């Protein structure tokens, strides 16, 4: 529908309604029932047709009809449905609202027909009251008005899109003109760029060589740092890095008033293990025990180090005495459960450890050396009491 037709319909003083029915009485009753009908301050213009062929002519002559009140059975049983198909398929009128009326309820349109041809209502004449007809028609005209509004908006957007497309064509032409100018200027710059590119490539090559050298230096420094801080046999931190780390967490715990615990553990009868199995197997035992210590420490965000020989230490930041005892017992249990054979041990047929545990709350004076000394004394007590256990000193 053209935009001018939509404006004409909206400015009209009435809504066109075509009533198609082969009975004069139906037309008369319909006029009587709708004589006072108004929607948006506009009344109705009722146009009557008494056959489907006459309805076709009226629909062709009045494309601005809002609603078609249509009897299904007239000169033929499917005359009304044929008119519906003619309206939608031949006239391509998708705006008009269609309400079917019938006095023979057993002849009803299939659901697929209602959906395909956008039929907006189906009324039995025996049930048709003035109120029901009024409601059906009000809904249909409202839908018709909404469709016109949407179509008007669509046409408006389409017109704007066309204007935009025209503007884009003009802009594109100007862009082409400017592009040609820029191409000429670009050709003049190409030669200069070639010279600059050679200079840049030379600098990039030098930069790449410098980056390769820096990477090699970084890797070398990383290896040196690893060698300086890591025990070569076990992979744990060495004693030097243990001292540095403990100093850092000591200062942090002291400043924040957090607890700090350490565990020092010793493999029981390790000299006998070396004498019995040999030093290569002894190194292997140290590595297996170190792996377990590293795993247990990691579960509690602890720091594990080789303290010296067959001694190991775990630093537990922000860990109180009770929690550190739990970790010590877990460590002792996991090492014993690893079932590493130890025929030189007098406490078990497997490798075991003795553990000294201590903790500080920073509520009294103390030092790092005192903390280590207490843990070492606790380790001594654990050995004295029979090994394969942990002892705590406050």
Describe the structure.
With 394 residues, the protein is α/β, with parallel strands linked by helices. It has two domains: 3-155, 3-Layer(aba) Sandwich (Rossmann fold); 239-392, Alpha-Beta Plaits. It has eleven helices and ten strands. It has helices spanning 3-11, 24-33, 52-61, 79-90, 111-116, 130-229, 239-256, 270-277, 279-299, 321-337, 368-384, and strands at residues 14-20, 43-49, 67-71, 97-102, 121-124, 260-267, 303-308, 311-317, 353-360, 390-392. The strands form two sheets. It has a five-stranded parallel sheet, with helices on both faces. A five-stranded mixed sheet has the order 7-8-6-9-10, with helices on both faces. α11 (368-384) links the parallel β9 (353-360) and β10. α3 runs parallel beside α4 (79-90), α8 (270-277) packs across α9 (279-299) and α9 crosses α10 (321-337). The two termini are 95 Å apart. The mean pLDDT is 86.
